[in-house]
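Inputs:
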Amino acid sequence: MSRRPRAAIVVTGSELVRGEREDRNGPFLAAEVLRLGLEPERITIVGDRPADLERALADGLVADICLVSGGLGPTHDDRTIEVIAKAAGRKLVVDEALESEIAEVSRMIAERLRRPYSEFTVGVRKQATLPEGATSLGLAGTAPGVVLETDGCVVVALPGPPRELRRLWPRAVESEPVRRVLERAPARGRYVLRFFGTPESAVAQALADAGGDGDGVEATICAREFEIHVDLVVEPGAEERAAALAGALRESLGRYLFTEDERSIAEIVLDLCRERRLTLATAESCTGGLVAARLTSVAGSSDVFRGSLVAYSDDLKERELGVPRELLGSHGAVSAEAAQAMARGARDRLGTDVAVSVTGIAGPNGGTEEKPVGLVFLSAVGPDGEEARRIDLPGDRDMVRGRATAAALHLVRRLLTQT
Amino acid sequence: MSRRPRAAIVVTGSELVRGEREDRNGPFLAAEVLRLGLEPERITIVGDRPADLERALADGLVADICLVSGGLGPTHDDRTIEVIAKAAGRKLVVDEALESEIAEVSRMIAERLRRPYSEFTVGVRKQATLPEGATSLGLAGTAPGVVLETDGCVVVALPGPPRELRRLWPRAVESEPVRRVLERAPARGRYVLRFFGTPESAVAQALADAGGDGDGVEATICAREFEIHVDLVVEPGAEERAAALAGALRESLGRYLFTEDERSIAEIVLDLCRERRLTLATAESCTGGLVAARLTSVAGSSDVFRGSLVAYSDDLKERELGVPRELLGSHGAVSAEAAQAMARGARDRLGTDVAVSVTGIAGPNGGTEEKPVGLVFLSAVGPDGEEARRIDLPGDRDMVRGRATAAALHLVRRLLTQT
């Protein structure tokens, strides 16, 4: 098997290295290069200290391709280009065509801000200055994406704002130097298996029992909000072994397997409803709108999803969802009975075919010995029946709410696939 | 000024370096060491290839403290301890006391899983094997946190699951070797200024006009969903200069300044309501429950927040929020008129003092020339009046929804602070 080209990712930004903001560019670029058949080898996040950036870039140039995000702006703090030139042993030269291009954009900005263009000329020249031999990938704002082929490594520099980086990334992929790296990456196969309702350790054990990964099949097992995601990445020649592994997992854990594609559970629920022309609503207490937000994060959800009643107070549970006051008094708002009444109430009230409800104690306060923090009741009602579930969730408020949201969506899936 | 101790963070995990999951430990640890007065210098994310981990650790040992997350499990893929020992030039030895501690936990796990304990002994011994001179910080599951003082660097290894890492982190901070590093970090001052409604460039300009950072004051400017967050970190001796900078920002941008603490806009809105004993509801279309979810993410929000009507379909806007059918027909659901009717309807219907509504086109589909993707109307109604806003948001579906959510909360703030 030929050696697969390796990618290093260098992300610059003081706010990122200080943990004031979470980096989105590193994971995006890593997933992209993986998809293109390269092996992501490291993501390094550094601030704008030149020495830190230099060290990260020197490490990055050891890979076959080095993707750099950020530090392309017009000010002296933006040092990526100068440090790349230094690391690659290239002179810095002004790209005249690029300079006119940036000047044009900057003139418009000057006009909009009502500042004299003369304030921009230094910045324009700085942004048009590239390492000798580098080419521009076009502009995002006034910052150019840049690609440079050095001895053994192709360096791509992209602007830091995630939206601008994502806009210029396809041009980087199409550039000659990057294409030559990609040609050295043989296509890999991939299996995606998503389980729900079984612990990560059981999936790991099933994988080990089936012979484990290795020999051209690389497995990753990832737990996310009760879902266990298994990815098998398959090198050329290992197709049979991978098919056998996937088959063994299907066999031993089939009843927990809910999809073999990358659709989220929200997408799956919407698709299940769409197939049967069912409409959907939610009634939420402790999740406070998260189930609805997750469903509506999917573009085109409006043909299925109608709305939600977030009834955070008992008063609204009674008045808007029709949960009987006596029920709230005898069983409490966090009970199987209340969950069922909420789901039925939402279905009636919002006039949908299917409704799902969540009521629980997200914490950190409000727990009792009988009903501790993390106790959640779910109910799903549809045209052919009902499903209910009680769960005890570990973790903090965010985790309880996130997991209860996932569990609510999976309960709808169960309701719609078991009939 | 004495040199401030520097921290390197090494995060291990194949799913992280491949972008299959976003790392939470790096930002958490970076923010923690920053708070403790250290300077985070880099976050490196690597997979479980020993060579990659070795290189990342060798780089990390150049710092004064190196925090490593992940790779402490019982299997052969978990190589952090062995690589630390190698990088530090230490032998691996079994810690007998630690071995009994891990054995005890493992016996319970074996029992629960109904597996013979003999299957665990190799893993137990592996997890009790530490570099010579290292000490355990206690267990999370069966994995010990570990601290090791090497020549010039204190290495701390913590388990990868974020919850376990956060649980053991305080013990690391209290450990002797880490305390000695922290003693070398003089206390820093900090100013926090949060602006809304002005572009990042205007804040950067105001900062530059006031003399800019440097000379013991380090400024970071960060844009998040329309908010511009300015942090000034102040070295001993630079207090006056920092106070002058903060004063200049207050003066030039005072009307956009909404807080000088770290409360989120959701917390601020809840506090404003609480002070005046007002209750709050939301009526949401394109945000699909996100405003309610943001408010209820704050613990204790139930004394203010009552509920939400997510009316995704026009039908529900009419029936549940009382938006007149004629209004929807003449102005459309995405209009200032519909937003106002939604907010008024939610206030009436859910019986609160204050309500805020959002209606817009989140995209990617559904836009027209007259009403393009990103067009959002907001309305807030309270006991003393109303506020309305129209915004045109750039970006994809997630960004439009996120920014509309922030704008809705800020509209409530404006409603409650202008009267």
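Residues 265-417 of chain B form a domain with the Maf protein fold (CATH 3.90.950.20). Flag for discussion at group meeting.
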